Structure formats: C-alpha cells, structure tokens
UniProtKB/TrEMBL annotation, chain B:
Record-given protein name: Regulator of SigK
GO biological process: one example: regulation of translation
Lineage, opening ranks: Bacteria, Pseudomonadati, Bacteroidota, Cytophagia, Cytophagales
GO molecular function, one term: sigma factor antagonist activity
Keywords: Cell membrane, Membrane, Transmembrane, Transmembrane helix
Signal peptide extent: none
Length: 191, 292
C-alpha cells in the first residue's frame, strides 16, 4: 500500500427519502414551519454556493432569503420525478446568485474582475455533525486543474459553454467532454 | 437510439449544469423518463454536482438564521396580503363612512345581592380562563420547542447514519485490499523506474488462477494535465492493455483492480493521453518489472 492512505471514499449527506418526502409534502401544503426545517437542513450548502458566486456575505444572505421566497412561491413547479429537492433548490439559488452578479457586472462593467481573484478566503463549514462531509481541498485534489476550472466556470460563474470555449480557447466539444470527465470523477467519489 | 453513446455524449452533464435550451432540456427529460439507464446516469450526475456544491458549504454567521427566517416570513405574508387587498382597491368607490363606535356597558349596575355574587363568580371564571390561556400558551411554546429539537436530533441522527455508512464502505474497501495482500495465490511483481523516472516504483499483484490484477503505486511522478497512466501486461513480449490508473491509485492512495489478464510474464506502466492508447508508447515507459 502507498505511503499515504487517505482516500476520499465518502457519501453525500443524503437524507432518507422519507424525511425528504415529508418536507416536500409540507412545503407543497404551504406549511410555513416547514421552511424552518428547510433552513436547518440546507442553509449551509445553499449559503456556501451563493457566497462562492456573489462573494459578499451581505449579498449572499439577501440572495438566500430571496431564494427561499422564490422556492416557497414556485414550489408547485418542483417535480420530484425530475430530481431531488436539493438539486432543484440549488438551481433556484444558483440562478438568483448568477443573475445578481450579472446585473452587478453590467453596472460596473469597466471594473470586471478577473476570474477567481477574490480577496476573501472563506472558512469552510466546520460542522461536527457532518462526518461524511467532503472537504473542498480533498475534492480539488481529485479533480485536475483543467477539470476544476471548467466546472467552476459553468457552475459558479454562469458561463455558457461557448463562453467557456472562448475564454479557454478550446473547441466546444472539448468543453463538453471535460465537463463530463470532471463530473465522472465527482460521481466516482460517491459510489 | 444508442443509449450508451448518448450517455457518453455529455448532454446529461450540460442539462444538470443548466446549459441547454428549453427544447434540448425537454428532450433530455423525455429520454430520462423513457430509458431507466439515462435516468440513473442523470441522477448520478446531479448527485455529483450536489456533492460539489456541498463541498462549498459554509456555516452561515450567527444571527442569520433569525434574520433570514423572519425576512422570509414577512415577504411571504406581504405578498399573500397584496393580492387580497388589490381587488378592494380597484373599484373607485368612495369609502363607506366608518361605522360609529358603539359603546355598550359591560354590565348593568348591580341592583341585588344575587347580582353581585354572580359578578364575583364571573370575575373568578374570567381569571381562571386567563390563567388557563396563559398555561396553554406556555405549553404550546414548549411543545413547539420540543418538536423543533426533535427534528434537529433526527436530522443529526440521519447524518450520523450516513457517516457510518461512509466509514463502513471505506472499511469494506480496505478489507478487500488486505485480502489481496494476504492471498497466497497472488504473485507480486515489483516494477522499478526507467531512466526517465528513476525514483518511480509500483507493484502489481497478479493472480494467474483468477486472472485478477491489482496495482499498488509507491511513487509515480504526477501526471501532467491531459495525461494518464496506463498499465500493460506483457505476454510473451506482446503488450496487452490492463486498464487506466485512476488518480487515487496513481497517487498511491489505494489499490486499484485492473482488467483481468489471462497470462503475463511482466508488467509495465506508460504515460498516455487521457483515456489511454491501444498500444504502449515506449518513449513514455515509466516503470517495468518481470514476474519472478
């Protein structure tokens, strides 16, 4: 065996389907108290993603709140057969956050920041109740830099695939295959 | 419809990344509903992105929970009242004069002693009712607290269970690796570095009876971007592809089971383009070793 024995074999914190079903049923019935449970369950993940996109704590808080209002009002459009609740709410919040930075970039387009040069380095969540939580560093170690860059541009910077192709000077097909390769690496960590 | 090709195309990844037009997305959803294999792969992709998102989790600052939850409540209630108020405001009808406040005496002045006794009874009853309301309110608040704590405890228990599962999975991997190391049928082939990579070292564990091949890396130079290590079995000097090394295996983090090999006298690893090559690039030979 190798000198380092620290593989990442881990699982997503996946709530048992029953608990998720109950939460979905309560949200569908417009039970306001269910939103408290929703917050306790998902806020760290949603806040982290929003913060990664907007990079300002106050704005991230606003977007999270907006996201919850949007989730509440458009809950009838959530279709469990198309994916888990987490996937859907993540997309709602991610889209709001990306809209936010787009409108900001539009306002101050002359000061558009270079990619990934945020002065702020956020502490990752320290949560003793998430023993299976995979740290960002461990994940990054599994993705090679090219793969990470493509996923980050598509997922966090709101780039379209052709914008990524242009930015990185790559053929469109390569963007697609690299995105697939990166996601494959990630899904192998779950299995 | 070649399902495998479709899965390999990367379209599902673009769907999960919300990169498709509505028409393309609808097509993906239609295919996912029709073909279970596509549905399963899409779920895997979505979970992988969920994992990536979750790795970015940040514990929100103290006090945010109260602010966001009450802000949410306010927003939702305002919007709920707005549509109800709108139709009232629409017709231009002069507001009806507010009805004059009518004040009625609560009770007629006491006239008899019987009436006075009744009044005392009524006051006592009101006090009792108020006390009871207060107690109800307290009990209700406590019940709410307990329910909240219970749901938190349940959520914790769920995450512990998930953590346990992760540990068990890791243990199972380790146990099977240990089984390979201890199995006497396995023959160990030590591969040492070529002139290109003198410090490189890796081992192959080969079981000729079951044809199983495991690779155990001790030290390989980090593969440059776009490159990947490939294992070859040499059978009567003819190279046979034994599979690609995963990043974890190439970094020495774990054993990796490779393709089954019917017969071999030596093993070698070359550095190839990502995804591998049908024949080994001899100039990129990194380690090699003979079976003793």
């Amino acid at each position: 065996m190798g000198p380092t024995t620290n593989p990442v074999t881990s699982l997503l914190p996946e709530p048992p389907p029953l608990a998720e079903e109950q939460l979905v049923a309560r949200l569908r019935a417009q039970d306001e108290a269910a939103m408290t449970e929703f917050y306790d369950r998902y806020s760290a993940a949603l806040y982290g993603v929003i913060l990664r996109i907007v990079r300002r704590e106050e704005e991230a808080e606003d977007v999270l709140q907006e996201g919850m209002v949007k989730i509440w009002h458009s809950f009838q459009s959530y279709d469990p057969s198309k994916g888990r609740l987490f996937t859907w709410v993540l997309n709602v919040c991610r889209n709001l956050a990306i809209d936010k930075i787009r409108s900001r970039q539009y306002r101050v387009s002359s000061h558009s920041q270079p990619l990934d040069e945020s002065p702020a380095e956020y502490q990752p969540a320290v949560d003793s109740f998430r023993p299976e939580h995979i740290g960002l560093q461990e994940l990054t170690r599994q993705l090679n830099p090219d793969q990470k860059q493509i996923v980050d541009l598509l997922y966090f910077e709101g780039y379209t695939q052709s914008e990524v192709a242009e930015e990185l000077n790559l053929p469109l097909g390569t963007v697609k295959t690299r995105a697939r390769a990166a996601i494959k690496v990630l899904s192998n960590l779950i299995r | 419809m070649n399902i495998e090709e479709y899965i390999e195309s990367g379209q599902l990844e673009l769907y999960a990344l919300q990169q498709l037009t509505p028409a393309e997305a609808a097509e993906v959803e239609r295919l996912a509903a029709e073909y279970p294999a596509i549905r399963a792969e899409l779920t895997r992709v979505q979970r992988a992105l969920g994992l990536y998102a979750d790795a970015h989790a940040v514990t929100p600052p103290a006090g945010m929970r109260e602010r966001v939850l009450s802000g949410f409540q306010q927003a939702v209630r305002q919007q709920a009242e707005a549509p109800a108020a709108a139709p009232q405001a629409a017709p231009v009808v002069p507001p009806a004069p507010a009805p004059e406040a009518v004040v009625r005496p609560i009770s007629a002045p006491a006239q008899t002693t019987a009436g006075s006794a009744f009044r005392w009874l009524a006051i006592a009853a009101s006090v009792a009712l108020l006390l009871s309301l207060g107690a109800n309110w307290l009990l209700y608040a406590r019940l709410q607290d307990s329910q909240h704590e219970l749901s938190l405890a349940q959520a914790r228990q769920e995450t512990y269970a998930a953590g346990m599962q992760a540990v068990e999975k890791r243990l199972a991997t380790r146990t099977s690796e240990l089984g390979v190391l201890r199995d006497e049928q396995f023959r160990t082939v030590v591969m040492t570095g070529t002139a290109q990579a003198p410090g490189a070292r890796a081992k192959v564990m080969y079981n000729p009876a079951t044809r199983a091949v495991y690779v155990d890396v001790h030290n390989l130079p980090a593969a440059p971007s776009g490159k990947q290590y490939q294992l070859w079995a040499l059978d009567k000097s003819k190279p046979v592809d034994a599979g690609m090394l995963s990043q974890a295996a190439a970094a020495g983090d774990s054993l990796q089971r490779m393709k089954d090999i019917a017969s071999a006298q030596a093993f070698a690893i070359t550095l190839e383009d990502e995804g591998g090559h049908p024949t080994p690039t001899m100039a990129a030979l990194t380690v090699m070793g003979q079976m003793l």
